[in-house]
Predict the structure.
Amino acid sequence: MQIEIHRWMTVVENRMVEAGRPGDPPLRKVGVIAVVKNPHAGRYEQDLTPVIKASAAVGELMAKLALDAMGGLDVESYGKGGVVGLNGEQEHANAMLTTTFAEPLRLAVGGAEAWIPSYTKLAAPGATIDVPLAHKDALYVRSHYDGLTLTLPPDAPAPDEVALIIVLANRGRINARVGGLKASEIGGKDGLR
């Protein structure tokens, strides 16, 4: 099986100032959306293994597109999400966003250790989704708890489509000051600390 990509788009946000204070460096968030055909739309399928396996190629393409949009900046945070068109099930996005999809992203950003936060939902075209972000190497780095809000095009996802999303950021929130583990203090290889 191959997942058919209908279109993709990239969103780039550069935040220079927060609360009147400049970010040094500025915060760049990148979102890549791939709108794909949902091979299971309109019917129940018990075995989602074929679409899980096929998602690796989509993950590889999206990771490349996201890194290109980062413009050479190091990636410190990542997240993923999905919006399923109304003839599908939320489970269809989850199947396409498993570790199989995510492994190319982990490799592209330098072998990240932490799990990738995600959010999926079933929605009509033009939906808005908040994709969570967390540090790629240690989940407990509070400064990197963030997200990117994306509004899909007014005609996507169609009832038989799924919008798959990857979000990257080059740093944590500007002016983060709620304590906890600092990115410079990450020491373990367990994905937590």
Notes: Residues 49-70 form the longest helix (22 residues).
